[in-house]
Amino acid sequence: MVLSRGKKAFLIGFISLVILGIGIIPTCIPPNIYDYNYINWHGADLTSDITGDSTYFDNFPNFTTPSELDAYDIRALPYDQQLVLTTLQGLVNKENTSLYFIYRESDAFWLDRLKEYYGVNYTISSYASYWNIIEKYNTSIKGVIIYDENLLDTVNVATFLAGVNECVVIHPSMLYNFSTFFGLSALYDFRGNFTSRLALYTWAFENYWPIANQKMIASRPPETTSFRDYIVAANIFTFWVHVGPFGDPAEIELFRRIMTETPQNIPVWGWFSDPGGALGEYEAVKTISHNGKYSLCAAIPDLTVLSAFKDPLLTQKPISFNASSYPLENKIYVALIVSDGDNVDYCQNYLLNEIWQNPDRGTVPLGITLEPLMAKISPIILKYYYENATANEYFLAGPSGAGYCYVDMTPTFPNYLNRTKYAMDQSDMRQVWLLNGYEGYEVQYSEEILNAYTSPKCNFTGIYLNYHDFQAEANSLVNDVPVFHSIWVEGGNELIGKLNSIAYTKPDYPIFVFVGWNSWDFNISTAKYVYDTLPNDTYTFLRPDQFAELFTRYQLELTSENWMNETIVLSITLVLFIGVVILLALLWLFSKQDSNQKQESISNGFRHLLKLFYVIIDVSLLLTVNFCLYSTILSVIYLLFLIISLFFGIQLKRVIEKSIGVRETFCLSLSLLTIGFFLFAISPQFIIVIGFPLGILLSRQIQSNHLVYNSPELGKKSFFYSLIIAAVIILLIPFQYYALLIWIIAFIFIGIAFPLIFLFKNSHLILFNDFSNQIRYSYLKGVCFGILLFFLLSPTYAPERYFFSILWGLENFPTKLTIAFSIATIYLSAILIFEFLRLKNISLSKMHALFLTLVGFLCYIILPFYFQNVIVFFGSILLYIFGLVVLINALVISSLPYLNLHELANSPSITGKDPRGFISQFSFWLIIGLFIFFIPQTVLVIDSQEAFSFIGLTGINQLSWSPLMWTCFYTPSIYTFLAIPLTAYVLIVGLIRTIAH
């Protein structure tokens, strides 16, 4: 049936409106899954509020500085007794600082330092009952508040109200004693009043926030007793709800409401709760930053005492270093910096016990992050570290200055920078480590933010960026202040391997590498092992301040030579020259041809234009997927929308072609994809508009069989060549240019669409004949393979971003990048092995498949216990996953009616037009795709290994990862040069054939 132009136009308009209408669906995502955007500063000067005054410090309560303290060791007391004593401590110290409690060994250590540095006298009692202490200080108590032991969150609200009403928080069983001996009544009794913490905190916020301290709020787990002295003394509203996307949506909304309806420029004391682990941190700090606040992870014991001291003489030990006369050699210069110093509890306890006391400290130049606000809230900690540092230790501010926030997300950044400047001046810090998010790829900082931190008004000497496994951008000078990009490590062999990978591909000039070391995995002895292992003629380790000075000198000398600009100009000129020569050669060859040859050349030109077009299609696919694979739950939902819309585009292609024609469908897809890219550039929420036409064009691409060069029978082969080229293009373009690349692709689509449409005549329709009778693979399978290929070809982006974000739960593991890349490789390898066996007609029965899976699982558990080698570990995982793939095929696909893979694949009666061939392939690869994308690999591999380690089996962190293996996994150029020779071969062959024709 031939449709009239009017009916075709109507159908085209109808299809367009349907796709555009459905494309609005992602805009209806529930508000609890929401990604805050970065702020557009519009070129503003963000340093205008830097005044260098102490106004902000006055927001913290001031306690009387004690000369004597009553100290009690309460480590042996149960929770309810510690709770009542801690709230009592807040009441007592609010009036006169005199009460100190020891919850852990480090508390006794800092008590000794108070005596050493400030002359505080104290007596420690280890045997006093909690009631003896209550009796001694009962005059400070005006009443009691009873918490509900069946809803422990009532402790948080009770603690806050205890400060407001000068009460202590008690267990119900204590009421009799307080009433009988002191005549105290219960001002609040929370027993049985609330059925959920959501109802509790909502009630508390709506009714009692106005009487709380308006200069701070706190997030604390109710199971902890320390820090509650400060909550009571400062009347801090306190809550504990899930904050990340895996929590209760109603609790997330309450958290956002609290952040929105409380004042800006205030700290959120403590930390957060979320089943997603670090993803919860990411979402929480995003919300906090977006509302102009910052996280102050300083909920430490005895803060009413520690913050009562003032010390204006906090200075780091100076060292002699002259960067101008330092011998600058053709070496790799390394600065090791330990993370998480913004966590004051870490500084007070873990850093002291696990790092500072190590006898190897001082043997390796090291940077250690600390919280500059400790100059106000606990100067004793800074004073101790400064005075006991060796010449090899240097201290800088943790992210992102005075408290933890994402700098390009906080609308009150000028005020934040002002207090950061003042706090860093008070704590004698000149360098700062910044975070702008917690994605698994290089986060971009606005020019305004970097200009602010490097402004002469701040006078900082070094800026360090992000927590990333790779150095995604070159270090640089901004306003003559060095800005460094991280290489993140969690172990010694990892660091050796990563540095070796840099050395193997190092150009012939000095390289500066900032290494961020995860504090919870850092060990001085391990750092010394790295320092001693790496050769001195290749590597030089420096303190961060020395490192920054030397880099500044090198960059200024480099700028004066201006060789880099000359190289760029020369490269561009060379590329243009080669391009012009090739074009002139082709035109000359064309001019020598007769009319028949010219007609054939035009036809070939159309084919090559079509090849280029399909490469751009694949670049578009990978670029879109790349945008969907970073660490927010919203991005993964976008990825799901993309996959679904790709699938439906593939499915609908044939129906639409039959309705309006092949040429019209092609034109419609071009138009919708162009519109989709413009919409996507405006907002990723319109990703479905890209997915439908991409699916149609990908389906046509696999069938068209004309991409890079002719391969008469295997359209899928050409499809993969095109994907490889696209992956290389994506890999070689830095992420910061992706947004620009979207716009460029949109315009390229327009540029190529017109000649394709005009050249798309009946004589060329043979190019679009259905080759699906020779294609044994489904379209969706090709898409899944393409995405996996992208994982493999760009390991410094996609694998880390995907696994790091969605499937977080990893504590002790070598690195997110390596594990993610390895597992992606293993999955792809298992699938390829299965496909090879299937094509060779080798199959396993259900019983054999079950047996293979069981053997693989047992190997996965048992082998690493006896062979603590990572290759054995990965081999056992491969066996396990391969067994699962075979089992899925045997139990699911082969059991479906009319969908036996082997029968369909080998039956001559089944052609590509038979829907069963497509359905069988689609069903199998859909299950595999779901298995790859939606079964958490961390649960399957990493978390299970962690569970094994708890019962005495080998955990993944106990496996042997050699520096050589790190080098192989980490060297980005290895992946690049694996793809480039193949790409070059394909392009050269295509060019030769073009000229020959």
Describe the structure.
The structure is a single chain. With 997 residues, this protein is an alpha/beta fold. It folds into 4 domains: 63-306, no CATH class; 332-336 and 359-561, GxGYxYP glycoside hydrolase, C-terminal domain (TIM Barrel, Alpha-Beta Barrel); 611-775, no CATH class; 777-981, no CATH class. It is 55% helix and 9% strand. It has 36 helices and 19 strands. The strands form 4 sheets. Strands 11, 12, 13, 14, 15, 16, 17, 18 and 19 form a 9-stranded mixed β-sheet that branches. It has a 4-stranded parallel β-sheet with strand order 8-7-9-10. Strand 16 (476-478) and strand 17 form a beta hairpin. The two termini are 39 Å apart.
Please, how many helices? 36
For the secondary structure, the number of strands is 19
Q: Helix/strand-derived class?
A: alpha/beta
Low-pLDDT sequence parts: 561-568, 705-715, 760-818, 895-948, 972-997
Question: How many structurally independent domains?
Answer: 4
Helix content: 55-70%
What profile does the largest beta sheet have? Answer: 9 strands, mixed
Taken from the alpha-carbon principal axes, the silhouette is: globular
Mean pLDDT value: 77
Key descriptive features of the protein:
globular, disordered C terminus, 997 residues, alpha/beta, 55% helix, 4 domains, nine-stranded mixed β-sheet, four-stranded parallel β-sheet, TIM Barrel
Question: How do the helices and strands line up, and which of them pair or pack?
Answer:
Blueprint lengths: L4 H18 L45 E6 L5 H17 L3 E4 L2 H14 L2 E5 L4 H8 L5 E4 L7 H12 L1 E4 L4 H8 L3 E4 L7 H12 L8 E3 L8 H7 L2 E3 L9 H13 L5 E4 L7 H13 L3 E3 L6 H4 L25 E7 L5 H13 L9 E5 L3 H4 L1 H10 L4 E5 L15 H14 L4 E4 L12 H7 L8 E4 L10 E3 L2 E9 L2 H13 L6 E7 L6 H10 L5 E3 L2 H18 L1 H29 L3 H34 L4 H28 L1 H21 L4 H18 L10 H18 L5 H22 L19 H15 L4 H9 L9 H24 L6 H21 L3 H24 L7 H6 L8 H20 L2 H14 L12 H8 L1 H25 L1
Parallel strand pairs: 1-2, 1-3, 4-5, 4-6, 7-8, 7-9, 9-10, 11-12, 11-18, 11-19, 12-13, 14-15, 15-17, 17-18
Antiparallel strand pairs: 16-17
Helix pairs in contact: 2-4, 2-8, 5-8, 7-9, 17-18, 17-35, 21-22, 21-24, 21-25, 21-26, 22-23, 22-24, 23-24, 23-26, 24-25, 25-27, 25-36, 27-29, 27-33, 28-29, 29-31, 30-31, 31-33
